[in-house]
Design goal:
This is Mitochondrial GTPase 1. The protein has 364 residues and is α/β, with parallel strands linked by helices. It is built from 13 helices and 6 strands. Bound molecules: guanosine-5'-triphosphate (GTP) and magnesium ion (MG).
Length: 364
């Protein structure tokens, strides 16, 4: 009988994450830093381009020229052409890359240098770029690579890698917005590393599972069994022949229990009496998440639908949802109606005045 993959995922009860205290502080820091910033790099995860987009950042850094970076391309099967077309229609710059790929990062450095060259009067104290995005998408890794390539550190310093920003596989490592980090001497380009910032509240259960799969929220927040089931659901939609997991079971299946038992039996240390479904599910998910010699997969459903019109609708609905959130309304009050932070009606406090002074000194 022909195998038919599920087209609807069961409605599991998944708690939805929201913005944490330090991320709120990071938003506030970005608001104060905004006048100093000439350009924004918004990093997303190429395996979940829609779930890892954060409209909140566009509010705080409104009107800044921006490029969207789809990072971790080495782990993804994204179809860049389609997403590129989608951004082109919206008149946005985008790039697909891996922070771990030297030639990708070289291309990014040269695109930033070209941007600098487009200024009639170049910023006298250097081009200032902020790198922002959801947690764990690879912002700090990107800065380390940009600095190594842009400052030619690898060539000069006997192949030793120099890290300026700490990185980890867990979300929320960067807690504070960094000082300006130099990534190019001529032209002078500086970059600010910001903590990962979540949306005020995650849209729905499936988006939350995608975010757990890419570790943009703590993986423990979503049961690994549910994550494994969602992964199986996506793998089947991407290839109903069961090819992606044939190594573990010889036929396609919609049953995560069957697949996990078969997966566990293939592992070296399998003992029936010690079989634990949650641990097995965690290992199974990790296998696909970091791509250990297994086929890669897209980790969200919405981008499997190959229609940029549908994505437009999804993003429009998401923007409307964000606009309704109390946090956005509060930001609107602080930043002025256009969220630029430059409006005359903006309510100013002592912190704002201090930031204004700093920003002015930098621009002198
Ligand atoms: N395979 C692969 N892994 C990457 C890439 N970029 C980053 N990573 C890994 O992704 C994880 C997160 O990277 P970070 O640079 O710490 O991410 P971040 O966005 O700064 O995270 P927060 O500061 O927590 O928001 C680390 O384990 C990196 O090694 C990439 O292009 N490919
Ligand atoms: Mg970081």
């Amino acid at each position: 009988m022909k195998f038919i993959p599920r087209t609807v995922f069961p409605k599991y009860n998944v708690p939805l994450a929201n913005l944490k205290g330090h991320q709120r502080a990071a938003l506030s820091d970005l608001m104060h830093l905004a006048p100093q910033i000439d350009y924004v790099l918004e990093v997303r995860d190429a395996r979940a381009p829609l779930a890892s987009a954060n409209g909140l950042i566009d509010k705080v850094l409104a009107k800044k020229p921006k490029m969207v970076l789809y990072n971790k391309l080495d782990l993804a099967v994204t179809k860049p052409k389609l997403i590129e077309k989608f951004h082109k229609e919206r008149n946005e710059d985008c790039m697909f890359l891996s922070a771990k790929n030297t030639s990708d990062v070289k291309k990014l450095v040269s695109r930033l240098q070209t941007k600098f060259g487009t200024y009639e009067i170049p910023p006298p104290l250097g081009f200032r770029v902020a790198i922002v995005g959801m947690p764990n998408v690879g912002k700090s890794s990107m800065i380390n690579s940009l600095r190594q390539i842009g400052m030619k550190l690898r060539d000069i310093v006997t192949q030793k890698k120099y890290k300026v920003a700490r990185t980890s596989d867990y979300p929320g490592l960067t807690r504070k917005t960094s000082e300006a980090i130099k990534i190019s001497e001529d032209p002078l380009i500086y970059i600010y590393d910001a903590p990962g910032i979540m949306v005020p509240s995650v849209k729905d259960a499936e988006t939350m599972i995608s975010l757990a799969l890419i570790h943009s929220v703590q993986s423990e927040l979503v049961d690994h069994y549910i994550q494994a089931d969602y992964l199986l659901y996506l793998l089947n939609l991407q290839n109903p022949s069961g090819k992606h997991y044939r190594k573990f079971i010889d036929h396609p299946t919609n049953s995560i229990d069957e697949l996990l038992v078969s997966y566990a039996k293939k592992s070296k240390n399998y003992q029936e009496s010690k079989f634990n479904i949650e641990n097995t599910a965690r290992n199974f998910v990790d296998h696909f998440r970091v791509g250990y010699k297994v086929p890669f997969a897209m980790l969200e459903k919405d981008t499997l639908v190959e229609s940029s019109e549908k994505w437009n609708d999804i993003l429009k609905t998401e923007t409307n949802r964000l606009n309704e959130s109390p946090l956005i309304k509060e930001l609107g009050q602080r930043l002025g109606d256009d969220y630029s932070g430059m409006s005359k009606n903006r309510k100013r406090n002592a912190k704002d005045r201090k930031a204004d002074l700093n920003n002015m000194l930098f621009k002198l």
